[in-house]
Specification:
The complex is a heterotrimer.
Chain A: H1 2-15, H2 23-49, H3 57-73, H4 78-100, H5 105-130, E1 141-142, H6 149-172, H7 174-191, H8 196-222, E2 224-225, H9 227-230, H10 233-246, H11 253-271, H12 276-290, H13 294-300
Antiparallel strand pairs in A: 1-2
Helix pairs in contact in A: 2-6, 2-8, 2-10, 2-11, 3-4, 3-5, 3-8, 4-8, 6-7, 6-8, 7-8, 10-11
Chain B: H1 2-17, E1 28-35, H2 42-61, E2 65-67, E3 70-80, H3 85-97, E4 103-105, H4 110-123, E5 127-129, E6 145-147, H5 152-155, H6 157-161, E7 172-178, H7 181-197, E8 200-207, H8 214-224, E9 228-232, H9 235-247, E10 254-257, H10 264-270, E11 278-281, E12 290-291, E13 295-296, H11 297-308, H12 314-333, H13 341-353, E14 355-358, E15 361-364, E16 377-382, E17 385-390
Parallel strand pairs in B: 1-3, 1-4, 4-5, 5-6, 7-8, 7-9, 9-10, 10-11
Antiparallel strand pairs in B: 2-3, 11-16, 12-13, 14-15, 16-17
Helix pairs in contact in B: 2-12, 3-4, 9-10, 12-13
Chain C: H1 2-32, H2 39-57, H3 65-87, H4 92-114, E1 129-132, E2 135-138, H5 139-161, H6 163-173, H7 175-180, H8 185-210, H9 218-232, H10 237-257, H11 260-277
Antiparallel strand pairs in C: 1-2
Helix pairs in contact in C: 1-5, 1-8, 1-9, 1-10, 2-3, 2-8, 2-9, 3-4, 3-8, 5-6, 5-8, 5-10, 6-8, 9-10, 10-11
The chains are: A mainly alpha, B alpha/beta, C mainly alpha.
Chain lengths: 306, 410, 289
């Protein structure tokens, strides 16, 4: 029964635009899809390998800027631009990952955070330092006004579905098995002959590609980007919280986390202007103390009865 | 059992998402607004919220807005965009398509307003804001975006032109500013006006908003010994700059900020250290503006204090001015709520044609939506109070120049 | 030349402030393996304590420091005893969620009670400095610097010599053995957290005189503390001082000779490079899992 749920939901979502609802609902669903994608991508590396990444937003920013620059300065169309965003992010991640993944725990976290903050500042200062006009610094880049909201709805839906499917397949095959081995006992895995470095860096790069593509779509969707918001550490924090809330290391945990928290933000956040974040903090504590495995833990408890 | 729970959850969510079914009470004008009530601009967003609230309460105290002889109460719907532009855009879309408000009022912060106004343009809602002035906002050929503030680069005119009445005339100046849209444009505005005034620019530097070390920057500027220091700022940057100026013992003959000193917190927090500071302003209570809704500028100032325990900053007054002209527009055009899209198109056209005098001053929107002729003034902190010092014809007191060095102040 | 020395002094004094509010973070991480995401809120609590006492009762900020210590320390203790204690043995990800939740609660409670206004403490001697030839040294910052150094050494000595301090170190090195020798781990954790929080509150009180404070000020400070501590070596208290001073000097020199914008970019680039080359921090004494 559980297996049929995902394709069923997907079908419903694909057909939703036929109802011709107000633009706002598609925008809201696009937002939810974006966060499902980001949380899942973050979880793919951090949840599966246990290497907590604090710099994921770096790739989001790179993706945003790559697409923005390609579309405005090189006149490239949308799809090749986001593909380029993904590839560029993946390449950068290869480099960053190779050097940071020999660090453990909080050191890895800080190194990745340093990368993201450095990237943000570089984009801000680049034009001024080298006296050229490229990133446009704090003035930001304005992209051409795009299509209807449903265009982005479908783009996000397709890309995010692919992301979740990728996580699903990795979870079930040898690649995922190696990742989990790394999480449980990396040294033992290394001794047993697993090339941990290859797996770690590869999954990190895959995550970066996903985040980069989502960043590219984001730029076109918002039509105006500036360094401070697309590189903001708050985005990484959201990814982490959604994944943890829903259940880290699982395939659908981040999906659930992203959906619940985005909806909560939309519905409750709008009505309780000042106390929403306070309530969120309390809810998080409750979840952490009583449901350490996240919401998914609630569902899987039935299966893992000791 | 689990599916029943899920079903209930879905039902509740749908129920909460559906628009408020308040169509029964048709005698209302519903106005929506997305503002930063939390986040980086939370402070400023709350100020604008108070401003709009003040306008609505004043209108409702008079019975409401009068259209075709009938009175309509004003109902304001505020949403928090958390200083995030994607949120701002989403909320404006919600206000337009789900809550189906009659009118919209603009938020605060050029970045968020930039994104939100694109949505307003799509849904054909005129959006008047008194809290966003970056030039970029007016360069998009939008018809539905209006601002009661002048453009950012021009708002700062007064701070540079004041040099013409200073003796001895300043010869050099340094410009610094935080590197976000509004303040960097203000800094560039300073630069342009300095060039026009023939004053030499000895240092120009934009710094990240997250900067904590202002001392190094200001020591560097101190070395170059400029007569004037002009800063592209919001409140926090202005406070940080003043504290740092004292620590590095640097007293430029004139220090001017694009924004910050007009917010009462500035003088309250700095006490005596705030003396001599000059700021750009687009309104001051001593100006002889008036209208039959708010009264004179002085009365508006006093009533606002009575209501909120603090005097309004010019952004708040600009916001109220915008709300007022929108009210006059629907009253004049005879639009009865609920407003339909065709009404709003006519409203937009009407707004472009209007030329009004309010307690905020003259409001006339150019074809790009900016307020065409709102002469900026320069104010100075003297004995803990803000007084207009430029231009001469509206100056309350002469400008105190040069500023006394820190060590000589009591 | 004067500019260089001035920049150096500025950097050291700034670094002292960084070190002051980072050593508590290092202690908590070193002993309990918890990355305290609400660290910035402890600074905020200390800062606001000083602010309110000054604004309402006109008490000099330096005199109210002990109260900032108490308020932050108490906050830390209470949070630890009733919340963190339940998750201290859990995987680190749980502690991230937990401390993040507390961060949200503390920051937004403060916002609710104190509003988003920007505030700062300005006394008659704020910003006053003395001159050494062409150099200017702000007195208040110098005092903060000394307090930071003293606190760091005090903490270090406490951990080395005092009975409770040694118990804390024992608990961080080997929990099982510590238990076997009769050390109450829960008590040790409570003490550690309270101590770390108290030291942070002290820094917060000092910060209210230098900087602008507001309820949501916490997160950027937490990030800097994170950087300082990793640079100096996690769990190694003197490292927090060294890390703070290094970052302070690098930033001021870059800001003086290049631009302020680059000072931040270079800080993070340098941090990244150092971590890649020397994962245990520049002094090589950091705790690695």
């Amino acid at each position: 029964m559980r297996k049929a749920l995902f394709p069923a939901v997907l079908l419903v979502l694909l057909l939703l635009p036929a109802l011709k609802l107000e633009g706002y609902y598609y925008r809201m669903l696009s937002t939810i899809f974006l966060w499902i994608g980001l949380a899942s991508a973050w979880n793919l590396t951090s949840g599966f390998t246990g290497y907590i990444d604090f710099g994921s937003v770096g790739y989001f920013g790179i993706g945003n800027y790559a697409t923005a620059i390609l579309m405005t300065k090189a006149g490239m169309p949308f799809v090749p631009s986001i593909a380029a965003s993904g590839i560029l992010s993946g390449l950068v991640a290869q480099f960053i990952g190779r050097h940071t993944m020999k660090l453990r725990g909080a050191y890895f976290g800080i190194a990745t955070l340093a990368f993201a903050e450095a990237a943000s500042q570089i984009v801000m200062e680049f034009d001024r330092t080298f006296h050229i006009t490229f990133f446009e610094g704090s003035h930001g880049i304005t992209l051409p006004i795009a299509h209807e909201e449903t265009f982005f709805y479908y783009t996000f839906l397709i890309v995010v579905s692919l992301i979740v499917l990728t996580v699903f397949f990795i979870d079930r095959n040898k690649f995922g098995y190696a990742l989990k081995a790394i999480k449980e006992a990396e040294d033992s895995a290394e001794l047993a002959g697993v090339n941990t470095r290859f797996y770690k860096v590869s999954v990190y790069a895959i995550t970066a590609v996903m985040i980069g593509v989502l960043g590219g779509i984001n730029a076109y969707w918002l039509t105006y980007i500036s360094p401070l918001d697309v590189f903001s550490v708050i985005h990484t924090i959201h990814m982490i919280i959604m994944a943890l809330f829903g259940g880290v290391g699982t395939v659908f945990g981040p999906v659930a986390g992203a959906v619940v928290l985005s909806l909560a933000n939309e519905i409750i956040g709008a009505k309780l202007l000042y106390t929403y974040l306070l309530m969120l903090g309390i809810i998080l504590l409750v979840v952490v103390i009583f449901l350490p495995r996240g919401f998914i833990g609630l569902l899987s408890l039935r299966r893992f009865k000791k | 059992m689990k599916y029943l729970k899920a079903l209930c959850l879905v039902a509740i969510i749908t129920g909460l998402l559906l628009p408020n079914l308040s169509y029964g009470q048709a005698a209302k004008v519903r106005i929506g607004c997305a503002l930063p009530l939390t986040g980086v601009f939370g402070r400023d967003g709350n100020l604008v919220k108070d401003a709009y609230t003040f306008w609505a309460e004043t209108a409702n105290a008079k019975g409401g807005i009068t259209v075709k002889g009938k009175k309509y109460q004003v109902e304001l719907l505020f949403f928090d965009d958390k200083s995030d532009k994607a949120e701002s855009a989403k909320l404006v879309e919600r206000l337009a398509s789900v809550d189906k408000v009659d009118l919209i009022l603009g938020g605060f912060g050029s970045d968020s307003v930039f994104a939100a106004s694109a949505i307003a343009e799509k849904y054909k809602y005129p959006m008047i804001s008194g809290g966003a002035s970056s030039n970029k906002l007016f360069e998009r050929n939008f018809k539905y975006y209006f601002s009661t503030l002048g453009k950012a680069t021009e708002e700062v005119r007064g701070c540079v032109e004041i040099a013409s009445i200073l003796k001895p005339k300043p010869k050099t100046a340094a410009v610094i500013g935080s590197d976000i849209l509004f303040t960097s444009l203000a800094a560039e505005g300073f630069k342009d006006y300095l060039k026009k005034a023939g004053i030499e620019l000895v240092h120009f530097e934009l710094f990240p908003l997250s900067l904590t070390d202002y001392n190094s920057l200001l020591y560097k500027v101190k070395q170059k010994n400029p007569d004037m220091l002009l800063v592209g700022s919001h409140l926090m940057v202005a406070l940080n700059t003043m504290k740092a100026l004292k620590e590095v013992d640097f007293t430029p003959k004139l220090v001017a900020f694009s924004y910050g000193p007009t917010v009462p917190d500035f003088v309250k927090s700095l006490g005596k250290d705030a003396e001599y500071v000059v700021a750009a302003a687009e309104w001051a209570p001593s100006l002889s503006y008036k209208d039959d809704f708010f009264g004179t500028a002085k009365e508006l100032n006093a009533n606002y204090f009575k209501r909120f325990g603090r005097y309004p900053d010019y952004v708040e007054v600009a916001s109220m001015g915008g709300a007022l002209v929108q009210q006059w527009a629907i009253e004049k055009l005879g639009m009865t709520p609920p407003l339909k899209e065709a009404d709003r198109v006519k409203l937009m056209e009407g707004l472009h044609k209007m030329d009004s005098l309010t307690a905020y001053g003259r409001i006339k929107f150019g074809p790009d939506g900016a307020n065409v002729d709102h002469p900026p003034v320069a104010v100075q902190v003297q004995n803990g109070k803000l007084v207009i010092v430029f231009p001469k014809d509206v100056a309350e007191k002469p400008v105190l120049y040069p500023a006394k060095p820190w060590k000589e102040r009591k | 030349m004067t500019l260089f020395i001035q920049a150096l002094i500025t950097g050291l004094l700034n670094g002292g402030v960084y070190a002051a509010y980072s050593s508590g973070f290092s202690l908590i991480f070193g002993v309990m393996n918890i990355v305290n995401i609400f660290h910035g809120e402890l600074i905020m609590v200390g800062a606001f304590t000083t602010y309110w006492l000054y604004t309402l009762y006109n008490i000099d900020p330096f005199l109210t420091l002990p109260l900032s210590v108490l308020s932050a320390g108490a906050t830390g203790y209470i949070v630890q005893r009733y919340i963190i204690n339940r998750v201290v043995e859990a995987p680190p990800m749980i502690s991230y969620l937990c401390t993040f939740g507390i961060h949200l609660i503390l920051a937004n409670l403060a916002l609710l009670f104190w509003s988003a206004d920007f505030r700062t403490v300005t006394t008659s001697y704020s910003g006053v400095g003395f001159s050494l030839g062409q150099l200017t040294i702000p007195i208040a910052r110098l005092i903060t610097f000394f307090i930071a150094v003293c606190t760091t050494f005090g903490l270090y000595l406490f951990l080395e010599k005092a009975r409770y301090g040694k118990a804390i170190r024992a608990a961080s090195q080997d929990k099982q053995m510590a238990r076997l020798v009769g050390i109450d781990i829960r008590k040790v954790y409570a003490l550690t957290f309270a101590l770390g929080a108290a030291v942070t509150g002290l820094a917060g009180g000092l910060i209210s005189t230098h900087f602008v404070i507001y309820p949501q000020m916490g997160l950027p400070y937490t990030i800097i503390a994170f950087c300082v501590v990793v640079l100096g070596g996690m769990g190694y208290i003197p490292g927090a001082l060294v890390g703070g001073l290094c970052i302070g000097v690098i930033q001021s020199l870059t800001a003086t000779y290049l631009t302020s914008g680059l000072s931040i970019a270079i800080t993070f680039i340098l941090l990244f490079i150092i971590l890649v080359l020397k994962p245990r921090g520049i002094m090589g004494k950091g705790i690695v899992e």
